[in-house]
Amino acid sequence: MLVGDWMTEEVLTIQPGAPIFDAMEMMRDAGIRQIPVTEASGLVAGIVSDRDIRDAMPSKFLPGDNASGNGEGLMGLKIKDIMTHDPYIVSPDTCMEVAAEILLEKKIGGLPVVDEFGLVGIVTEVDVYRFLTTVTGVSKGSSQFAFVLEDTASALEELLNDLWARGVRLSTVFTSYEGVKQGSRRVFVWVQKLDDDTVESLVMHLKKTYDLSYHVHRGETHKNEF
Known about the structure:
With 226 residues, this protein is α+β, with helices and mostly antiparallel strands.
């Protein structure tokens, strides 16, 4: 679950002295929202996003219709004028969860990936979505079961052993302490694809044995009615 396994490796780059219209065309043609800005040496100098370009149209940088002093308007603006300097970066060995946290906390859409030799990729929100849908198995029709359990190793072990004993193959297990009382935790179990009859009988058993909050099957959420 490292950035190097999920990042986009074929990265378009642009130099600081390029006109902003070059970035606009590159984003439009490639269907992307951010481009790392590199020096001729390959050093990452910044990153430019579609939001940076929108902000430059035209009021943030131009009084009226023209840039102050150059008389060229938008044509006079360069990437270096609007890019984010010294952007947040990650390495290929950074955990995807850490990269996702940076994207969320800093409210940015992409992180250049840099190793000791320079830029090797970029990890974006889309890469995080791809990572999430893959590891949960949802992209392959996996089903999810959500529980509230006692916050003990034995409670989780009992649940997982029960599922294994019933021939259920697990994809991913997540836990969370949000929205539950102290001494409890939420447990989200993604399992490999099950047919409708198997899910129905499994849900009946889980409702009787555990605090099953809801289950998701074939993309539909079914809440447990108490």
